[in-house]
Amino acid sequence: MNKDNITQSENAGPVRKRIKKLDALRGFALLGVCMANYKELTLYAFYDVGHTVNVEADRSDTIANFLLYFLVDGKFYTIFSVLFGIGFSIIIGNAMQRGANGMRIFYRRMLLLLGFGFAHLMLLWSGDILMLYAAMGMLLPFFWNCSDKTILRWAAFFLCLPIVSSTIVFTFNLTPCSWFFRQMDYWQDRFGIGDWGEWLCDRQSYTDLLKFLIMGAFERMTEFISSDRYFKVLGLFLMGLCIGKKRIYADITAHRKLLTNTMKIGFAIGIPFALLHAYDGITGFRLIPPLHTFVETFSIYPLGWAYMAAFALYSKHADNLLAYPGKMALTCYISQSAIAVLLFYGVGFGLGMQMSLSQVVFTSIGIFLFQALFAHMWLKIFAYGPLEWVWRMLTYGVWLPLRKSRTE
What DSSP letter does each residue of 74-88 carry, written as one string? Predict the structure, then answer.
């Protein structure tokens, strides 16, 4: 058997040849996630109201803000979440082929991801998503033996559940986040944290950043609960699981009709709702919460799925560029936060709160291109990204050589 296709390890099992299209799609998702997150990571999102009005008075920033809501907001975490579900199906399928306990491997992998996410949340940035992915990922094995139709029904249920939840919370004036808000206020008062942006930009002590991150962890929980993010993520995981079990990604040509229809229907449904979502986001006009959730649901998911289908059909020339960061997704995702802290926070160069939104967007694109170049150079020499290497070794409990052998 060709060593390029499979590398044997007594405990770690075979490392099968990666599917380039999935790596490239993961890299594409990383680009969008970077663009979405850098609005906060550059501290632009923490401008006070007066400053925000002055900045967005510039026409280019108004356009940039609209385009972020219209084309980026939520669409790329949708892709990432679907890919997570596909990845689960691949892990379990490969383990079953070699007679290993795939569920045990997967749960160990999720516990480690939970650890990576906790470290990211408490040491770098309050906007971590990895802990939620790990927690929701642990539910996927319960759906493994379900039929495709059952999985899709559960996926639709969880994706639509936030609309029902939002309606109930709004109708009965419920406050499911109240405890987390109290904790957030407590830690903010205890540490004397005033304006969030100024605190992060001006404080040069890493201890002060850690204080903010303690408060920020509770703020992140309020975001997850108020947006029902856990239901959304689980629904998207299940979509990916169904795609993975059917191995649609393995033969794009055979599924061209399905992908074409997905793309057309996704754009037809998603674009009108995304325009309304963008208008809702950048103007004083605000939809009531249940209607906002409805519009968000039918803008983000259809467009995200349309992006995936279009990418699968037409991305051939971009695959080489995007596959490298896609192979190092964990390293790239966490390093995006580390780079931002170094550049924009007071513990680093303190450049935050100085850029327009247009500059933020171009900066995020530039940082991703730097990551893509770094990943390309790194993977010419090494077999895994730095964090992927650690993650894999801890998952299987064996030492794996980082540097590629001469025959690879």
Answer: THHHHHHHHHHHHHH
Domain layout of the chain by residue ranges: 6-396
Each residue of 142-177: pLDDT tens digit? 999 999 999 999 999 999 999 999 999 999 999 999
Cα–Cα distances in Å, from 337 out to 33, 41, 115, 320, 372?
11, 7, 16, 24, 15
User: DSSP class of residue 284?
Assistant: S
- Is pLDDT of 123 > 80? yes
Contact between 252 and 40 under an 8 Å Cβ cutoff? The reply is no
Confidence of residue 405 (pLDDT cuts 50, 70, 90): confident
Structure-token pair, residue 376: 């390309």
Q: Report d(CA 237, CA 84) in Å as an integer.
A: 6
Residue range 169-180, pLDDT digits in tens: 999 999 999 999
pLDDT at 407: 63
Determine contact, residues 231/156, Cβ cutoff 8 Å: no
For the segment 325-344, what is each residue's pLDDT rounded down to a tens digit? 999 999 999 999 999 999 99
Q: Give the tens place of pLDDT for each residue, 21-42.
A: 999 999 999 999 999 999 999 9
Report how far Cα 379 is from the mean position of its chain's Cα atoms.
22
Which residue type sits at 224? F
Q: For residue 238, what are the contacts with CB-CB under 8 A and spacing of at least 6?
A: 85, 140, 143, 151, 152, 154, 155, 158
Using CA of residue 100, residue 104, residue 110, residue 112, what is the dihedral sign?
negative
Structure tokens at 368: 């991703």
How many other CB atoms are there within 10 angstroms of residue 71's CB atom? 16
Question: Nearest-CA neighbor of 328 among 382, 404, 367, 366?
Answer: 382
Beta bridge partners of 6: 16
Output the CA angle 155-159-162, nearest 5 degrees.
145
